[in-house]
Design goal:
Blueprint lengths: L10 H5 L3 H14 L6 H14 L3 E5 L2 H11 L7 E4 L6 H8 L3 E4 L11 H6 L5 E5 L10 H11 L2 E5 L19 H7 L10 E5 L13 E5 L2 H10 L4 E3 L2 E2 L10 H10 L3 H19 L5 E2 L12 E5 L4 H10 L18 E2 L4 H9 E4 L7 H14 L3
Helix pairs in contact: 2-10, 3-10, 4-5, 4-9, 7-8, 11-14
The structure holds pyridoxal-5'-phosphate (PLP).
Length: 383
Amino acid sequence: MSVPLVPILDVPAELAPLRADLDAAIARVLDSGQLILGPEVEAFEREAAEYLGARHAVGLNSGTDALVIALRALGLGPGDEVITSPFSFFATSEAIQLVGAVPVFVDLAEGAFTLDPDAVAAALTPRTAALLPVHLYGDAAPLAALLALAERHGLRVIEDAAQAFGARYPTRCIGCRCDGGQSGALAGRRLGTIGDVGAVSFYPTKNLGALGDAGMLVTDDADVAAFARRLRNHGSERRYEHETLGYNSRLGAIQAAALRVKLPHLDAWTRERRRLAARYDDALADLRDLTLPAASDAHVYHQYTLRIANGRRTEVAAGLAERGIATSVHYPNTLERYGGRVHGDLTRAHAAAASVLSLPLYPRLGEARQDLVIDALREVLGG
Ligand SMILES: Cc1ncc(COP(=O)(O)O)c(C=O)c1O
């Protein structure tokens, strides 16, 4: 089947209703002649910071750069260990390795796709300098417990919020055993703004997607923000004066202008993602060999990801494909295969990598297309 009836994403459909506003925003940038950084990027940085409730937002070329620059801006590098999740996109551990630090992988919490704080605590060494939790699929990592650990041991916390722009910390504790009081203090705060630094991706398929690569670093720390601004521009604040080795990671003005068009729609898109996720939950709850996402009230459903039991994932994905339903596996492997160090065993992460399957879920999916997915899945799983 060449073109699926229900694609895993539908970027043209997402952009269609915005087309006139996007065209106008792009025209504004073209007319201004300022194609990189400049007023459009500054305006987006202000609007994004305000939306998130962060003091500083620094527009960058990608979420990967946001992670690398976050690590550099916090002074992390050779000799440092950074404890992170083995179950994420490659960029998470790639960034740690790119700055010369060592990713230390520990297992996920039971029933969750995010780090187990007990496993993190057990992996601490005198070289541990930072924790790098990932808010995978748009749901919160157990930051309350991780922040408590970080405070006790003097560690920095970098949130990989690449998939979670707009999500908030949940009102009840998810995937961790910290006391509810800590979670309560964080409840409602936007993910990415809770640790020392947050890294965000605006890759076009993200909940808030640009028209190409784009990313952002968010922080309340003015020094970190200032250093990140230098790092994105070859370590330079003044032309031809370079204080440190940096990167070319300046955000383009067209990306910023497009993101400014989209940002005011994000909360409505999130509501629709949640409504559709609840429809999947209701329609699939009775099926065998399938575990639904353990939803928190913070989840923004960047992905709606099931676990398929008994080694049936390949068969289920193939059955759906035959019926015109696209699916995706985020992620088929765990990250320790690319370097770094493992502490303890990664049984839950490996089980996740072997069983996860993401279904189509996006604001313009619509109930009719979603029903095709539901019917196909019920047929394939014999519901
Ligand atoms: C968890 C995670 N971290 C980091 C990144 C990197 O973001 P970007 O693709 O914008 O470089 C991604 C992007 O897919 C991601 O999903």
